[in-house]
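User: Please predict the structure of the protein below. I'd like the answer in structure-token form so I can feed it into my own downstream comparison script.

Assistant: Understood. Taking the following sequence of 141 residues as input:
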Amino acid sequence: MLLERFDPFIAEFDRLTQRTFGTTDGVGLPMDVIRHEDALEVRVDLPGVARDSIEVTLDNHMLTISAERRAAYGDSAQVLFQERFDGAMSRRLRVPDWVDAEAVTADYVDGVLALRLPLAERAKPRRITIGEASDQTAIAS
């Protein structure tokens, strides 16, 4: 399934794991998923992340977004308080098979990664023409 439910317990567990082990899976990667008529759009907030540290892969219906943010305070600086995440981040989403994997695009502007996942032709809404049956028994059989 592409969309995930928010679970405060899991979110807090992720934060504790990140603080303990220095890694994260989903923490620091808030996202929106929007369905348009012809595509899914995924927007991921990545403030302070350099474009060349972002990696997006799609393999076997699994979309993986990885990034790294390193704070540069200087050698003589002493960090007194830190809430902003510093390190590697990743997020994985299962992509439906009705997404055209060959046509996925990505842009990164003002700290927001925008992915466009076009829908395959078979998934796009279409109007179905209603025919006229000359004999009602044709429908029953």
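That's the full token string. The radius of gyration is 22 Å.
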